[in-house]
Amino acid sequence: MYCKNCGTFNEDSSIFCSNCGESLKEGVSLSKNNGSNAKQNVRTRPNITERSIALYIVLSVVTCGLFAIYWIFTLNDDMNQISEREASGVVVFLLMIITCGIYGLYWAYKLGQSIDSYYNNGESRSVLYLLLSVFGLSIITYAIAQNDFNKIARGN
């Protein structure tokens, strides 16, 4: 589909124009006030950076998990962008250490819920993220979540 504002071609699944950020779907806009006091379904485009999943996985393995700590910080910041949470990455990391990883399970679940509430399409990522984390596959949880955040960054 083509953007009505700038004419740039975008994928049919895109919500916002990849060039100018204009809304491509009905009922979703970038918090523009058209003068009416009626409530609208307004969703602002979050400021999320697209990241290379393969690079982040390789760096996490090569650094024996140290880079994964940074990845948790970035995922937490992205989660704060799309939800009403304001949790600091430092607090999340410290709670993971203090609770011997139990808070990490809760955080993975909340990460899935935040992405589910952003898309609002009935899918449930939270249980998948929780199960992957329970079985020690947190890096896969991070990769899937990063893929979802990359889609949001592209406007899909």
Q: Would you kindly provide a written description of the structure presented here, covering whatever features stand out?
A:
The chain has 156 residues and is mainly alpha-helical. The protein folds into 2 domains: 1-45, no CATH class; 53-154, no CATH class. The longest helix has 18 residues, at 102-119. It contains 6 helices and no strands. 52% of the residues lie in helices and 0% in strands.
Brief digest:
By secondary structure, the protein is mainly α.
Give me some keywords for this one.
single chain, 156 residues, mainly alpha, 6 helices, elongated
In terms of topology, how is this protein built?
Layout: H1 53-62, H2 66-82, H3 89-98, H4 102-119, H5 126-134, H6 138-154
Helix pairs in contact: 1-2, 1-6, 2-3, 2-4, 2-6, 3-4, 4-5, 4-6, 5-6
Total of helices? 6
Poorly predicted spans:
31-41
Radius of gyration: 17 Å
Global geometry: elongated
Q: Could you give the order of the helices and strands?
A: HHHHHH
What summary fits the major beta sheet?
Answer: none
Which band does the percent of strand residues land in? under 5%
- Taking the alpha carbons of the first and last residues, their distance comes to 13 Å
Q: What's the number of domains?
A: 2
Mean pLDDT: 83
Structural class: mainly alpha
Fraction of helical residues: 40-55%
Tell me the number of strands: 0
